[in-house]
What does this fold into?
Amino acid sequence: MPIVPVHLQNNVLIIQVPSTYFYEFLEEHYVEELKRAIHQELGPDGRLEYSIVVDQGNSQNQPRTLNLPTTRKAAAPVAQATPAAALATGPMSSSARHVAGAAAAPAPSATTLRNPFEASKAIDRNYLHSQLNGSYTFENYIEGDCNRLARSAGLAVANKPGTTSFNPLMVYGGVGLGKTHLVQAIGNHIKASNSDKFVLYVSAEKFTNQFIESLRANAVQDFANFYLLVDILILDDVQFLSGKDKTQEMFFHIFNHLHQAGKQIVMTSDRPPRDLVGLEDRLLSRFKWGLTADLQSPDFETRMAIIQNKMQQDGIDIPPQVVEYLAHSVNTNVRELEGVLISLVAQSSLNRREIDLEMAKQALRHIIEEVEAEVNIDFIQKTCAEYFSVPLDLLKAKTRKKEVVTARQVAMYFAKEHTSHSLKSIGHHFGGRDHSTVIHSVQTVSDLIDSDKSFRGQIVELRKKFAGK
Ligand code: ADP
Ligand code: MG
It folds into this structure.
């Protein structure tokens, strides 16, 4: 069972969950129900705490856990950050140390340099925190065609930071495809093998905010000096720097300095460097010094492997046909896949019901609806305009040129077939025509399908474009 009650004392119920993701999920979807139940059973002072397994341990060790109170607002240091960043679980994680009741904060060292991650504390190199999430590793980063190059480049960098030609290493790909996981795995690997190296993971957004804060506090030099201490700098989501000239300038400076000193730089972006509009050319040209590798959507087999790995990691049991169904149906991205998995496990646990195909179909309903919703009028208009080689704006205008009329009628026909828009609304999207025009178009297309073989062929081709969505 993934949710285990572990402790009830002084009106505090502690439940153990297998991962931070699970905690997030419960807090997001079930917090009200849980609160109600706690109040009902334990009275108004009743509280809920989570014990999150951050490290499975081995057969001799208990899993290491991290305790958090319910409602993310109350968990102050965790509140603003993403779960991955906030629940940093490396051995240096201050929150984990705190929970474990270990030694107090380190004594400030002689230097008065400010650490942008902990505004009030002076830097002590021994206590520099990597901001890594220890659960992102290479071991649980499933390899597939979609990520082979990026993964092996990442592994090479992790084994020999700063000395391969993959410097900088730039990983790009769409959301939820595993960029953050991969670059954190690099960081964790280096930390595990070279404990004296200062690895720092930071999102470009956090970097920007720290920089702005340092400007405000008149401490830009401290900011720069801090970053110059880093041996392996991992900057996540660099596209965030677009249009932020001052921050880019600072990063450029840090980049050059680190690179020259043989330090490793790893970056991610949600698009290829050539599409990073608003990033200075001199910065972009630096990215080309090393290796740029992309992440693609995983294929079916890789999705199966990812689900199976996740099940094993979290101790979840799901019938094979359900796993297969999930791998077939959720082909958007890995985060979505994990989301569905977690929601199934949570439902099964809370409703005391085994996971079955019916439940999986139910859980997938909203995702599939989202995908279907992508066949909207815009998409249909664009596809038809392209297919018939007519300009999109003419398709939506009043012109009566023959080629345009046909393309427009076909687009209306598909809008009626694939969307839930009323005839009136469809007319509105095609230059403000009335519903009788739409009816007429649909009728004309239907008639042509019956009478004209080559036209019918065109419709079949077009329909494929919408069905595949
Ligand atoms: P991105 O940063 O590209 O948006 P993430 O790195 O946050 O994506 O990945 C989303 C989720 O998918 C994470 O929980 C991650 O662990 C998981 N994931 C992505 N790719 C893989 C993979 N190849 N193997 C296992 N888990 C993966
Ligand atoms: Mg990310």
Q: What stands out?
A: Residues 179-180, 236 surround magnesium ion (ligand 2) (CB under 6 Å).
